Amino acid sequence: MDTCKLLSLTKINVTTLNYRKIPTRIAFHPSHHLRMPNAIKSFIPSAASISASSIQHLLSVDPCRRDNVLQHASDSVSNCLTLTETNLDLTVPGIKSKTRGKVRDVYDAGEYLVLVTTDRQSAFDRILASIPFKGQVLNETSMWWFNNTRHITSNAVVSCPDENVTIAKKCTVFPVEFVVRGYLTGSTDTSLWTVYNKGLRSYCGNNLPDGMVKNQKLSANILTPTTKAVDHDVPVTPDEIVNLGLMTKDEYEETRNKALSLFSYGQKIALENGLLLVDTKYEFGKRSDGTILLVDEVHTPDSSRYWIANSYEDRFNSGLEPENVDKEFLRLWFRDNCNPYEDKVLPEAPKELVCELAWRYIFLFETITNSKFKIPSAKEPIHDRISRNVTEALASL
Known about the structure:
Layout: H1 3-15, H2 52-61, H3 63-76, H4 88-91, E1 97-100, E2 104-109, E3 112-117, E4 120-123, E5 126-130, H5 134-148, E6 157-162, E7 165-169, E8 172-173, E9 176-184, H6 192-197, E10 202-203, E11 206-207, E12 216-223, E13 226-227, E14 234-235, H7 238-243, H8 249-272, E15 275-286, E16 292-295, E17 304-308, H9 309-317, H10 328-337, H11 351-369, H12 382-396
Antiparallel strand pairs: 1-2, 2-3, 3-7, 4-5, 6-7, 8-15, 9-12, 9-13, 9-15, 10-11, 13-14, 15-16, 15-17
Helix pairs in contact: 1-2, 3-11, 5-11
């Protein structure tokens, strides 16, 4: 796909599918890892809208990388991992059972768990679409953060034998998700802005002042935990967590401190790379010796919300949505085209939107990690590759 064709595609996204639904604003080359937010002012427009000339400018920085990723994503739409379901319990010796989550297939391998991150895209407590390369991006992004947050907390990771796979220590996972927020935003039923806009001023043990507006920065980061219910997450206060027996007071205090420290560190790294880490969720587990470990994923575009730092203030002051580098625009598209909580059958996400999200996930990985994402080879079927790599990894443990 050449630049002219890509510009044509961008125009279709803006005029036909609604610019707010499929923004094409994050178009600068991710290899330009500029360390301070102000350094990217010439790359990120902060006007009320993005004109065709602005899009042309963004693409002219280096259209080849974005062009290449979009083309690979388009070619791979029919080969997402979710369409071929992993069945390692049938192909890998030592695998005992499989549990299928929203995004991950988790396998019991005796002393260890094998977590396969698929391309399934979830939101509103259901699967929305399949995003090319998403599983690899999430797995490799998490691995980078796991390796770089060991000074804050220990984690359950043993190894990463495949682009889509993490082998982890077994532990008892607390039935609580630790959601940390730095801004008043969101579009789901449990998001901070949704409940605030309904008039709630006390949420998950936090008191919020009157007069705040959507996307406003909070005076301090707050923790809004939820219970891990089967069908949907339920907001809960710290006292309720302890009184319900979900955690002891000491366990909660320790994980609370870890979560807030992880988030502050994540915000620091994000800002150094021109991004705002807006909110995220963490999960923790406990080993038999009492050690509390960070599990699941860390600061991925699935578990976190990221905005472009340079344009945030101007857009906020103009009453515009921040430029995001996560799945929020996918949420907004489904919000605008259906009732994602009640409709039994959801509309199919447009291919252009799916490919755009694949690009944004890769952009985020490359921006945060300062490394180039490796597009997987299509020569070997994904499931065969995973089976081979997991078999070798388990045999070596």
